[in-house]
Amino acid sequence: MKTIKSVAEITGLTPKSIRGYESFGLIHPPKRTKARYRLYSEDDINRLLQIKHYRTLKFSLSEIAVLLNSPPLEIEASMIKHLRFLDEQLNEYHYAKAMICSTLYNRKKNSLHKLDINHRVAIIAIDLQNDMLEGGALQNKRMLTILPPLQRLFAQARREGIPIIYICDSHEKGDPELEIWDEHMMEGTYGAQIIDDVAPADGDFIIKKSLFNGFINTDLQYTLELLDIDTLLFTGWRTDVCVAQTAIEAFYRGYKVVIAKDGVNTTTQSAHDFGMSLMGINYDFTLCTCEDFTKTLIYEETLL
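and the corresponding C-alpha cells:
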C-alpha cells in the first residue's frame, strides 16, 4: 500500500487530481491509516494510470467512468466515435484560426493598398493527397506535373491574402465511392494527408469530402459565404471527375469559375482533355495558367 504522495510520483498526477478522481467515483475510496492518511493498492494505481491515459486522449470524466468498466469491443467503438469528435473539433479550431489569420492579413493588405481586384477570389485545391504519389492507393505520375506551378501559385496567393481552400477526400468503410474505386484516402492514414510540396499554411482552409462533388455534405458553401467569395480558381487532381463536378456545381451556385490549365490534371491525357473540353465547351469557364494568375497578383492586373 502506498501513500498519496508516492502514488502521485508513480503516476505523474497531482494529489489534488487523485482526490478529485476519487470524489468523482472513478476510483474506490482508499483505505486509511489510523491517522486518516490515504493508502492506495496496486489496483488503484493501475486504475489511476488508465484514467490519466484517457484524459490524455481528451475523454471527459463521465466518458472515462464508462470506459473503465467497458469490455474491449465497447472501448474500441468509443475510441472510433471519439476520434470523429476530435476531428470535428480540430476542423473547427483550424477554421477559426484560418478566419483570424485571413482577417488580420486582409487588414494589413488593405492598409497597403497593394492589390485591387474587382472580384473576391479563392483558390480551390482538390485532392492533392499522398495516395496519388508513388506507393499510394491511386498513384499516378501525372500528379507530379502540377505540383511545381501550384507551389508558386500558393506562395504568391498567401502573400496577397488570397484564401486557399483545400478540399480533400476522406473516406471511411462503407462510403459509396469505395464501391467504384479501391480504398483510398482513408481517414487518419498517411495517404489522406496533403502532399508536403503543396502543404497548407496558417490561414489556409481544409474541408473534407467523401463524394466527387466538393459542395455536397461539406462546409464549402458556408466557408465561401463567410469569406464573401464570388470567384473560384480551381486547381487539383482529376480534371474529369472531382475538379469538373465541383466546378460545375460552383457554376450552378452562381460563382465565376476559373480553371488553372497547368494546375489541374488527371490519370491520362485523354481523360484530362475530356475534362477540360467538358468545362470549356459546356460552361465557358475562364482558363489561365498558374503563372498568369500569379502575375495578375503581382502587377495588380486582372484576368477575371
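(Above: one complete record from the training split.) The two ends are 76 Å apart (CA to CA).
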